[in-house]
């Protein structure tokens, strides 16, 4: 009984091992066949497909190649001309005698305003033709070195005292501010989408629309009247996004070179300007009562400017 049982167990074990080995062989063969069919039936084809996959450029390589052969750059003279308007200057948080002169809370000073100066600098533009548009549409970004602009008052604020007398008619002797209040730096990148109706002519006019970020930084109040007590007043400006309208024309030259005349209108934005911590000297009153704490002077500027650019460019 024991020998028969042992023999049967050995026979069953051998049969089971054979079945498992056969099944494993079938699975391996089936898997290999399936993979071969997915690659194109056969080892030779799989090697060919592998070669094609390795030789075909990838997404980034194709993108780099497109940019390399469908972009342009131009650099030249850029002039910013400011045409914006401003609300009257507003005095806020005046204290002591200043409150008597300007009144409590907010008060406007008639026939006054603020603006920024004009400047000329270098400007560069990078353009990329959009795919599937036959070079009729392009995306452009224009950059310039940091621009240092004057922040100025306008109208009566230039040559008339903002507070000639108190409400009781007592002369203050506070002098006019003059034109310049201080300086600011700006780095206004602008992006536009440009349409060229003709791309095979010597003269190629275009029109564009886009946006500009009115980014300002490194402000400084240098006006002597506002700095009479060394109180370090500060200039703060909001940083809105403005709309851009663009007109221009490329004049084609040999060897993929060209010259461009370009005009951009920048608008549709309001910049809030505030000069804080203003303390002024009243020659007739300060010897008795000390400095006059004006507080904050602000204005709302309807930003409008035109960028004129004349530049030399090259197609890549």
TrEMBL record:
Protein name: OmpW family outer membrane protein
Cleaved signal peptide residues: 1-34
One Pfam match: OmpW
Keywords, in A-Z order: Signal
Domain of life per record: Bacteria
Keyword Signal attached: yes
